[in-house]
Task: structure prediction
Amino acid sequence: MAILTVLGIETSCDETAAAVVRGQPPGPGEILSNVVFSQSEAHAPYGGVVPEIASRAHLEILDDIIARALSEAELTLGEVDAVAATAGPGLIGGVMVGLTTAKALALAAGKPLIAVNHLAGHALTARLTDGVGFPFLLLLVSGGHCQLLAVQSAEDFRLYGSTMDDAAGEAFDKTAKLLGLGYPGGPLVEAHAARGNPRAFALPRPLLGRGLADSNRADFSFSGLKTAMRQLAQDKTISIDDACASFQAAVIDILQDRCATAMNMFAADFPGQDQPCLVVAGGVAANRAIGQGLAEVAGKAGFALRIPPARLCTDNGAMIAWAGLERFAVGASDPLETGPRARWPLDRKV
Ligand code: KG4
Ligand code: ZN
Result:
C-alpha cells in the first residue's frame, strides 16, 4: 500500500484547524503540520459556543490556517493526495465553511474530496499516534458526545452505549459555569479538583452497576449529577476545589463502571485477542485523573489503555486528515455534491 499525504480541515465546533498527515494504515502516521486556532476567547463571555459567532470566525480565518498548515508541512496543495474535511456531526454553519472550502480546494487542484465523520476522526487518532490495530474498544468522551463503541474498521463501528442526556464534557462545562469558573470548563475543573477533597460531597453516580443483562447496558447519564451540582453551587460558602474534586470523582466512577461493562461486551464479541485495547478519545480524554482511573479498570480487565496526547484529544485537523487518509487508503472518496450533516451517528456506516 502506498504512503499517502492528506490535508485535513476541521471546523465543526469552536476550533478552526488544518493539518497535513502522511502515512498508511494501520499507522502510526507522521504529522507534518497541525495548526489549531481556538475561538474559545470569542465564546467565553457567553459561557458556551455561539454557533453564529463560530461560523463567522471559521470563515474569516480558515484560508490562513490552511495556508499555514501547507507551508509548515513544506508542501503545496498540488503535492497532497487528497483533501479531507469534517462533514459532520457538528454546528452546521461551521461544517459548511470547512466542507465548502475543502470542495473548492479539491476542485481547483484536481484532488479527491474525503468527507470525514468528526467522531471517526477522534476514534482513529490512536492509529495515527500508536498504530492500534482493529478491532479496539473506544470510549469517546467530548463536549458533544459520550459513547462506547467497538471500532472494527475505519468505517464499521458497533455501539455499546451512549449518553441518555448530557455528554461528559458538557457536564464539566456546566459545572464550571455553575461554579463561576469560566469556559471551556474541563481544564479549569481539573485544575481545581487536583487541590480538593474528592470525598467532601456525596454526589450521585447515575446508572452505576448496570450490567450486561440490563437493557441500557453501557449507557451513561449525567443529568442527575448536574442537578446535584446546581444545588451544591447555590451554597456560596463551599470550597470550589472540593466541589470540583467531588464532581470529578463521580465522573471517574461512572466512566470506570461503564468501561468495565463495555470491556466485558467487547471480550465476548471479539474473543481470543492477545491484548485487547481500550482507547480513550475526545476532549475529556485530556483529563489526567480520568486517564489514571481508566488505567486501573483496564488493567484489571486485561486491556491495554491508549490515550493520545492532549493536543490530539481535543479537536484538531490531524485527526481529520488521518481519518480521511484511512478512508482514501481503502478506495473511498466523496462527490462534490456531498452535503454537511448536523447529525451523523457513527454506528451506521460512515
Ligand atoms: O473533542 P472536543 O475538543 O470537542 C468536541 O467535539 O466536543 O471536546 C471538548 C470538551 C469540552 O467539553 C471540554 O470542557 C472538555 O472536552 N475537556 C475536558 C478537559 N479538556 C477538555 N474535560 C475534562 N478535563 C479536561 N482536562
Ligand atoms: Zn470533537
Observations:
- The first strand starts at residue 4 and ends at 10.
